[in-house]
Design a protein that fits this description.
Blueprint: H1 4-7, H2 21-34, H3 47-54, H4 58-70, E1 74-77, E2 81-84, E3 91-94, H5 101-107, E4 112-122, H6 126-132, E5 140-149, E6 152-162, H7 176-182, E7 189-198, H8 201-207, E8 214-223, E9 229-238, E10 242-245
Parallel strand pairs: 3-10
Antiparallel strand pairs: 1-2, 4-5, 5-6, 6-9, 7-8, 8-9
Helix pairs in contact: 2-4, 3-4
Bound molecules: 2-acetamido-2-deoxy-6-O-phosphono-alpha-D-glucopyranose.
């Protein structure tokens, strides 16, 4: 961790006009990043140290830091502190390739891990029956995960798989698609629907973001080569780190 005076131009803090204190602190952090005294991956000094040094309350420091997290300038790792986000940490994800989270992150040199929120089997809900085209009595495997890339929470994902394709969800340790592939049931085609949402308090807490932060809600329904549905997954991707990119082509050839 870097010492405070090395990082922030503390003497400038008071002389910043009438702006609220948290806004002045945000500016100080941004200036330190622009000046190169704080760079990608650097730990930001702790709330208490910053509060003492600048003679402001911890609530003010927390507000400044959490807004910078929401703006994608800083990120938080659970239990270990607040860090400077790399500008290149935004993930650009083509919308037209059917890849898994693990593959997407590996391509970028990022290591994935997850907290399991649920990994069980059970009866499907009426929506899941419809989405998966199930018959009465069919059961499903549920995989609910908080997914991270290099320790940074990226997405909350609930995958529902007909149990005939994944009899025991406890066998999935890393990649779901790798487990499905091993069973000859990797999807080859998918339909995806995206919309923007504001995170609930609980979702925001899991992703280490302030309440109400924006996120992308994505529903994916994936198919096997014989047209049967193998996956119904709902994902919440943090809005500050994900760009979904689509290549568009002209629907009809233009004649000269
Ligand atoms: C992606 C997929 C999700 C799939 C998962 C498998 C989106 C929006 N969703 O997160 O549907 O279940 O990858 O990842 O891309 P895994 O094989 O690494 O577990």
């Amino acid at each position: 961790m870097i010492g405070l005076p090395d990082v922030f131009a503390v003497d400038r803090f008071r002389g910043e006009g009438n702006a609220p204190l948290y806004a002045k602190l945000k500016k100080l952090v941004r200036e330190a990043i622009d000046a190169g005294s704080l760079t990608e991956g650097n730990a930001i000094p702790g709330e208490r140290d910053v509060a003492q040094m600048l003679k402001i309350s911890r609530v003010t420091v927390r507000k400044a830091f959490s807004e910078l997290v929401a703006e994608g300038v800083l990120f938080q790792r659970r239990g270990s502190g607040t860090y400077v986000m790399s500008p290149s940490r935004r993930i650009e994800q083509p919308l037209s390739r059917l890849t898994s989270f693990t593959e997407d992150m590996e391509l970028r040199g990022l290591k994935t891990d997850a907290d399991w929120l649920d990994r069980s089997t059970g009866l499907p809900t009426p929506t899941e029956v419809l989405k998966l085209g199930l018959s009465p009595g069919d059961r499903v495997s549920r995989l609910h995960r908080l997914r991270r890339a290099d320790g940074v929470p990226m997405a909350i994902e609930l995958a529902i798989i007909p149990q005939k394709y994944l009899p025991d969800p406890l066998t999935v340790r890393g990649s779901l698609y790798a487990s499905l592939e091993a069973r000859g049931a990797r999807p080859i085609r998918a339909l995806q629907r995206l919309h923007a949402i504001a995170l609930t308090r609980q979702e925001a807490k899991l992703l280490g973001l302030p309440d109400g932060s924006p996120a992308l809600s994505i529903e994916r329904i994936s198919y096997l080569s014989d047209g049967r549905v193998v996956e119904y997954t709902r994902s919440l991707y943090r809005g500050d780190s994900y760009d979904f990119v689509a290549e568009l082509t002209l629907a009809h050839e233009v004649r000269p």
